[in-house]
């Protein structure tokens, strides 16, 4: 089983890291990959460069063996579509291995606008994690896909949607960038190693 958390990670923070770790623990995933996007399809483009965002991500997970950085989206040109990413992982691992694509309630709200979203469910399961300020509608297009038995994950490679309550951390990269621009100290919202990199490179001072 392979877990995936895609994101802009501009910069990575404890909301991302707890989510990745708790999803990995909950589903027993030995290989949880964090995949930074190069050109996000549906949002303003990132402030930090792809290389800077990857370096911050690598620094953040350096001491946690269950989390891996996967730079495949940074090596592709054009929009960083999740369909393309999951297709490329499928090509490497074959059709039988379960893939769990993790996303927050906020991102899930727009899932039906994603490139080839219906085919994404043929490539991976979705784990939709709780995020303060957002909720999952009780009924909707996703209802027939909702999985209740996590054991199914081990026998089916894709197609279910699971909702998981991770530790609620009201942290966003937008808020971190705002604090940094205002000269405020964002310590304890993100790893010290990441904050050190931001300060050394004077990132987000002028966004
Ligand atoms: N605090 C959080 N709790 C749970 N999930 C989160 C949290 N922050 C981000 N995520 C999820 O992580 C993924 C990547 O998020 P992203 O890199 O866009 O971070 P962000 O903090 O939302 O950034 P920004 O504020 O720049 O939009 C998304 O699926 C998002 O829903
Ligand atoms: O493939 C798409 O069309 C698509 C549209 C919006 C978001 N995504 C993915 O969703 C993940 C979280 O996105 P974001 O913008 O919250 O960082 C990240 O892996 C994005 O590539 C993917």
TrEMBL record:
NCBIfam families: cyt_tran_rel (TIGR00125), nicotinate (nicotinamide) nucleotide adenylyltransferase (TIGR00482), PRK00071.1-1 (NF000839), PRK00071.1-3 (NF000840). Its EC number is 2.7.7.18. Belongs to the NadD family. Pfam families: CTP_transf_like. It comes from the Bacteria. The keyword Acetylation does not apply. The lineage of its organism: Bacteria, Pseudomonadati, Pseudomonadota, Gammaproteobacteria, Thiotrichales. Catalyzes the reversible adenylation of nicotinate mononucleotide (NaMN) to nicotinic acid adenine dinucleotide (NaAD). GO terms for biological process: NAD+ biosynthetic process. Keywords: ATP-binding, NAD, Nucleotide-binding, Nucleotidyltransferase, Pyridine nucleotide biosynthesis, Transferase. Residues 4-179 form the Cytidyltransferase-like domain. This is Probable nicotinate-nucleotide adenylyltransferase. InterPro entries: Cyt_trans-like, NadD/NMNAT, Rossmann-like_a/b/a_fold. Pathway: Cofactor biosynthesis; NAD(+) biosynthesis; deamido-NAD(+) from nicotinate D-ribonucleotide: step 1/1.
């Amino acid at each position: 089983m392979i877990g995936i958390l895609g994101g802009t990670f501009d910069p990575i923070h404890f909301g991302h890291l707890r989510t990745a770790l708790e999803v990995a623990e909950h589903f027993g995933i030995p290989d949880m990959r964090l995949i930074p996007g190069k050109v996000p399809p549906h949002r303003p483009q990132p402030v930090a460069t792809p290389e800077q965002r990857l370096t911050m991500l690598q620094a953040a997970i350096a001491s946690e063996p269950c989390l891996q950085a996967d730079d495949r989206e940074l090596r592709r040109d054009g929009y960083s579509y999740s369909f393309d990413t999951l297709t490329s992982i499928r090509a490497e691992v074959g059709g039988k291995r379960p893939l769990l694509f993790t996303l927050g309630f906020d991102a899930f709200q727009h899932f039906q606008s994603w490139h080839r979203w219906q085919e994404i469910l043929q490539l991976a399961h979705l784990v939709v994690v709780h995020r303060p300020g957002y909720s999952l509608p009780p009924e909707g297009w996703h209802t027939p896909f909702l999985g209740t038995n996590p054991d199914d994950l081990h026998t089916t490679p894709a197609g279910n949607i699971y909702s998981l309550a991770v530790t609620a951390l009201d942290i966003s990269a937008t808020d971190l960038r705002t604090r940094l621009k205002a000269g405020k100290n964002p310590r304890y919202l993100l790893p010290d190693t990441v904050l050190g990199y931001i300060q050394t490179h004077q990132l987000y001072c002028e966004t």
